[in-house]
């Protein structure tokens, strides 16, 4: 695989993590009633959002490769 394919896979992983974090934040805020599980779910959601932001920033900044 060349660099363009690797960048494409990284961008798909970033988009997938954003969708995953959106789903977890929805669960954390509206569906889960146990406070400890809400905190764990929200933590995982925000960490995946941060990681996806870093991945997408990397893809955008290394675009003309």
> What percentage of the residues does DSSP assign to strands (E)?
under 5%
Give the tally of structural domains: 1
What share of residues is helical?
A: over 70%
The N- to C-terminal Cα distance equals 14 Å
Overall geometry: elongated
- Class per helix and strand makeup: mainly alpha
Run of helices and strands: HH
Average of pLDDT: 94
In short:
Helix content is 86%, strand content 0%. With 65 residues, the chain is mainly alpha-helical. The longest helix has 29 residues, at 3-31.
Textual characterization of the structure:
The structure is a single chain. With 65 residues, the protein is mostly helical. It has one domain (3-61). The protein is built from two helices and no strands. It has helices at 3-31, 35-61. Helix 1 runs antiparallel to helix 2. The chain is elongated and about 45 Å long. The chain starts with a helix and ends with a helix. 12% of the residues are buried.
């Amino acid at each position: 695989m060349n660099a363009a394919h690797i960048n494409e896979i990284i961008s798909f992983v970033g988009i997938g993590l954003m969708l995953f974090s959106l789903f977890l934040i929805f669960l954390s805020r509206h569906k889960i009633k146990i406070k400890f599980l809400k905190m764990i779910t929200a933590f995982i959601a925000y960490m995946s959002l941060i990681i996806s932001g870093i991945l997408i920033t990397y893809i955008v900044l290394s675009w003309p490769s």
